[in-house]
Amino acid sequence: MKRIFAAVLLLAVSVVTPAVSAGVPAIAGTWEAARAPNGDRLFIVLGEKGKAEIVEEYQLPQRGKQRMRTSTYGKWVRKGNDVLLTYADITDRLRYVAREPLAAVGLIGNAPALRPAGKPDARSRIGAEVLWKAPHDYHMKGGEEAPVSTPEAGGEATNK
Q: Which CATH number fits domain 28-159: 2.60.120.20, 3.40.50.620, 2.60.40.1120, 2.40.128.300?
């Protein structure tokens, strides 16, 4: 009798667990800001066990085309739809948005994004940047032409 009860309980837990987690979007992975016109990049990698890496790629002005890459390491934790990213005595609060408008990058449609919540710390590496679920090839609006993009991260991007 105890074995039957244990088997039924185990079966019920295995059926309910995927249903509960199905409504929670996956936050772990890479999130990238739209690329600047000069090709500078900013992205974060939210890894397993709360490990985080903030990566900045930029061109050195004195060295022509030479590019540099710097990484800052920290940790992250999820609280509801917010992600708290802590590094170098700084905590950034990012809010998950399932359908952030792509108008900021000159596209029509929506895509998953992490948007800063509240006023960012003056020393923040992320600042007010919106981070889009990677991979993508979004570029900041700046010229007359709309940027070309691929909605690989689940966005519904279309050129204007």
A: 2.40.128.300
